[in-house]
Each structure stands twice: as structure tokens, then as C-alpha cells.
Amino acid sequence: MVPSWTRNVGLGASAAPAVADGVVYVLNSEDSMYALDTASGGQRWTHKLPRVPVIGYSEPVVAGGVVYTTSDGRMYALDAATGEQRWTHETRHRASVDFSPVVAGDAVYFADETGRAYALDTATGKQRWTYETGGRGFKPVVAGDAVYVGDEVGRVHALDAATGEQRWTHETRHRARVDFSPVVAGDDVYFADETGRAYALDTATGKQRWTSRIGSGPYVSPVVVGGVVYIANTKVYALDTVTGERRWTSEAGGPCVSAMSAGGVVYVRNAEGKMYALDAATGGQRWTYEVSRGDHSDPVVADGVVYLDDDNENKVHALDAATGEQRWIYETGSGIFRPVVADGVVYIFTIGATVHAVRATTG
Fold first, then answer.
1. Which conformational region is residue 136 in: left (phi greater than 0), alpha (psi within -120 to 50 degrees), or beta?
2. Labelling 104: which of 69, 218, 317, 320 has CA 20 to 30 A away?
């Protein structure tokens, strides 16, 4: 299939692209950020970040006319229109930042590899506060006026978003590690620890509402939709958000590497390369689709289509979300980061440092 356009951006991809306001932003493995026109692939600007032997990249985040990205233990803010650097902030001891930042209001939040959380002013990059969790954890979650961060010694912390003051800390049973970000829905925060115990906590107090045993630890963050929290390990569990009682359990054919929900369907992928589409209400299997075994990113669901990467075969598969029927397959020639869909176009960034713009309807 012939794409709308392709563009090489140097050497190697480091993360999935970001798309906003007619521009695709990509960061290559040589620490250069490129801004490409979505219509033509033409280069609007490029910005070279300092290259030092510190590993740690995150996907670019675009908000309020600014592109935020990380490299060499620093957070960078670039003008989205010109690429001009507005500010940079260095983490303590130049610790790498492996997760994308979160922009909320006039602050940008992130955590470094040591578990230290930061809040910076979006306009100046000035540090508003920092909080030491005690160990490496997950990407911060911002909900309302609170920030939730975790650590590798089995604790979840709720911080005041404006001041960084600790509101509460909840310790898991036996200090079991929490590897994935929680989900905040309504007045509750949901997560699961490495032993396979799920928790629901009151967001205001940290008081435990319920806990439920689901077997082994999860491999992805929970998904909360319509009064149900879905947690995937080697199976998929649907728990009532109020009581924690199990509504249904469905087989997933092995360790799940991604889980998401859209349109009354829960989509999960396992490490063997198989996708399951499960009825969100009953857990019944609507359809399955299989690609080769290998490293796979999260699926993307947009406009009634599910997009799957097959990193081992260097392909992107487009499936009908309702039936699982294959609509098209696009070959990239090298490994793939998570596709991004915007305005009827699928943007694919590859290890070969090529950006592909593919029509969503035809591939």
C-alpha cells in the first residue's frame, strides 16, 4: 500500500509520536526533535537536545502551544510553533525520566527513575515542589487537585497538586510492590499490587474501601468504565467498583501486555500476540485476532477501528472494532512504536527513524 507520505528523521526512533494542531512531533534516538506538517510531511523545524550517555526517553506531550519531552535527565519545554527552547529543568543527580509528563493547569508533573516526583511551572520551568517517594514507581496520575504517585516498596501517596504536601499514604499488604499507575474514578482510586491483590481507596482520606484477590499480579494498569474495574494478568477480571465483588472472569491465553475499553468492549493483548475482544458486561468473547509473538504496544481504537502493531513482522493491522475483521495491513520495514490516529490519518514511527502517514480508511 502507498502511504500519504513518509519522512526520515535521522537515526532511530525513541518513542511514539505526538500529533497536535496539524503537526507531528517525533524524537529520534540522536536526541533531535522534529516537527512535521501533517499534510505533507514537510519539516517545520528541528531542535537538537544535548546528547549525553544517560538513557531515559518519554513520548512528547503537547499542551498550550508547548512540546514537553525528556532526555539526559532533564525536562525540556519547546515552543510548538518554532522549536525554540523555552526552558529546561534538570532532575536531581540527572536521574532519567522514563515516563511522559502530565500537564494539568499551569503545572507539569513527572517522576524520575529514583521515584522523586516534580511539579514545575509550565511558563518558566521553575520547580514548585518535589516529593521523595522512597523508591522507583509509576507515572504520576493527576486527578482534581491531587497527584497520586507510587513506589517500589508498596506504597501509594496522594499529594496536594499545588503544594506537594502529602495528604495520605497507603501501604499494601506485606509491602507488595505496585508497578502500574492507578486509575482515579469518582471518589475512588483503584490499583493492584504484584501479588494480585486489587484495592479501592477513598481519594480524600486514603481509607481502604475494599480489597479483592485476583491471583497473580497484573501486567498493565486497571481500566475503569461504568461501575466496573477491569484488571488483567493471565486472565481478565471484572470487579464491581463499589463492593469489589467479582462480576466475571475471562481467559486471556497468557500474560496480558495491554488492556483498554471502548464502546462496551474490553480489548486485551497477551504476550503471545493474541488480541481478545470481550463483552464488557458479560466477559463473553466477541472475537480474537492473532499476530506474531514479540514486543507489542497498546492497541489504538478510533472511529470503529482497532489498530495493532506487529513489531516482529513490522506491520500495522487495522481491524473492524465490532467484528475483528481485517480491513488492511501496512508494512513499515522496521520495528514500530505505538501508532497515533488523528483526523483520519494513522501516524507510525519506526525504529528505522521513518514517519509514515497512512490513510485510516484504506491503509
1. beta
2. 218
